[in-house]
Design a protein that fits this description.
The protein is an alpha/beta fold and 310 residues long. The chain contains 13 helices and 12 strands. The strands form 2 sheets. A 7-stranded mixed beta sheet has the order 2-1-3-4-6-5-10, with helices on both faces. It has a 5-stranded mixed beta sheet with strand order 7-9-8-11-12, sandwiched between helices. The longest helix has 15 residues.
Length: 310
Amino acid sequence: MSWKATRDGFGDSIARLGLEDKRIYVVDADIGKSCKTGAFMKSCPDQYLNVGIAEQNAAGVAAGLATCGKIPFVVTYATFGSMRMGEQIRQVICYPNLNVKIACSHGGVTPANDGATHQCIEDYGIMCAIPNMHVVMPADYESAVALVEEAAKLEGPVYLRFTRDAVPPVYPEGAKFEIGKAVWLREGDDVALIANGDTVHIALEAAEILHAEGIEATVLDMHTVKPLDREAVEACVERCGKIVTVEDHNIINGMGAQVACVVAQCGKGKMKIMGIQDQFGMSAPYERLLAMNGVTKEQVAEEARALVKG
């Protein structure tokens, strides 16, 4: 199976959904080429609105569409969708709990050579703090296709985060997902590796390294950061008592922080949060940026090994 960006999964899924359900609209902030809405624009021209480089206006337009029974997807980059639109998302989408989806490409450090201004490492931490918002990050192309469909079915605001760069396949075609329920990709009793988005394949590769050493790791795809699958985390605490979280997001207020809250409330267990350190990115190849922050299969395996042997 070939590597594909999750933004490609969004583009293919939304184009199909638009033909199937005329309530689905795309509100584009003049960034359709990068966010893969070209096919939707051609096949569903009456459901496509390009408001120009005016993200805050896009949020307002989408809110208005939602009040008329439409299912709008605002499409832009993660930096703009989470921060430039932040007030509008809070006030006119989440406060009235409208059925608006914010679909953002270029999440995490996948913009790579575009540099720190385009690398959004704060987005789903911001979105998690807003009541009524659901926060979802697919791991690969197939999960993106499926989770976009699930977001369209769900009544209420959803923030969807996609990668710019291609990522390895994790799921077979037609895999099923439920927003709010983690996927158990591998089971082991020694340590749990909980990842999301473009780091899921890193966790799986780390588990293979550990397996060769006789350490068996559970691997969870925590594709929904909010609402977090608390039952899955609690099960990992009971089964392993040791958890390593891995993500392409600031370690402050990211997925790992959400998991840590659950672990703390369990009153037992040890964990390590791995992700982008509390610093801005820089212009460099994607894999190098991850490595500079310790997010590699070798380092994940090392941290897991230390927990098991500690």
